[in-house]
Specification:
Bound molecules: protoporphyrin IX containing FE
Number of domains: 1
Low-confidence stretches: 188-194
CATH topology: Heme Oxygenase, Chain A
Number of strands: 0
CATH superfamily: Heme oxygenase-like
Mean pLDDT: 94
Order of helices and strands: HHHHHHHHHH
Structural class: mainly alpha
Shape: globular
CATH class: Mainly Alpha
Distance between the termini: 41 Å
Radius of gyration: 16 Å
Length: 194
Amino acid sequence: MRRLKDDTADLHALAEQYVRILDADARISDYARYLRAMLGYHLPIEETFAANDDLAQLGFAAQRRRKSHLLERDLETLGEERPFARCTAMPALPSMGHCIGAAYVIEGSTLGGRYILSRLPAVLAAVRGSATAFLEGYGAETGARWRAFGAIVERALADRDAEDAAVAGARATFSTLIDWLAMFEGRDERRVAS
Ligand code: HEM
């Protein structure tokens, strides 16, 4: 887990730059766009996790760890209409190690979600509790589920090759997510206009 964190820290910092909902001037439309982007990425990656026998055997409960329904609920609460776009440029995850690395990115983001939730600017804080199910994630269970995931990672990555694969999978996941977030950010008429 330490290596996954250290070897992806640069990409986490980059990803943060594409999440603008902590900006003082963030609007509900910025938040809705962020939720749309995250939903578009979560739908395919959650399907990949659910279809992966290695993850299941390691004890990764893909169905219980799904978050796309929370994203859909938040978007519906905000009055956002379908269709919701779906990312097609997903990472290649050719081995169990790669999948573990991808799951690390998605599971780790629940920690960031809790952090973001506690620091939302005023306009967005108004929807806290009504349209923030995704940011709340696993709620009070977040810490326990992160530790349980950490135990799975430690079990799964028995040698240096598996670790290398996990780092590669995590980096590919961050990179494709950043590209996808950047497409949504590019649609921001406020920033385009300024
Ligand atoms: C403005 C946006 C973001 C902020 C402010 C943020 C903040 C944080 C914070 C504070 C933590 C550490 C929490 C703790 O240790 O209790 C964390 C962890 C993490 N975040 Fe983010 N995050 C953001 C976006 C993202 C995104 C978009 C992803 C990818 C989907 C992501 C993936 C992760 C991962 C994998 C970890 C676990 C790191 C580790 O301890 O190994 N974060 N984030």
